[in-house]
Amino acid sequence: MNDNTGSKKLRRSRHQRILTGVSGGIGEFVGVDPNIVRVVFVALTIFGAGTAVLLYIAAWLVMPEEDGEDSMLEHIIRNFQGKKSDL
């Protein structure tokens, strides 16, 4: 494992992206291949009655992108409030 985990932040990846970058971001954060994270998501979806789909959507909404500060959920809330939000 990495010794400087205090400086790492959980972010959606721009480089290891297939859909939204959640698996790539989790893989980079924990130091494993993003494909392993994707296989775990698929297995949890099949054997967990789709629970992983909800977890994936929640992670997509809450995790900010690699170079961004705000999450997708923060942008949605700002737009709902009528405030300008650049995504």
TrEMBL record:
InterPro entries per record: Phageshock_PspC_N (IPR007168), PspC (IPR052027)
Chief location bin: membrane
Q: Where are the transmembrane segments?
A: 39-62
Where does the signal sequence lie? none
For the Phage shock protein PspC N-terminal domain, which residue ranges apply?
8-66
Q: Which UniProt keywords apply?
A: Cell membrane, Membrane, Transmembrane, Transmembrane helix
What membrane topology does this protein have?
Single-pass membrane protein
Q: Where found, per UniProt?
A: Cell membrane
Q: Which Pfam families match?
A: PspC (PF04024)
Q: What is this protein called?
A: PspC domain-containing protein
Species: Streptomonospora wellingtoniae
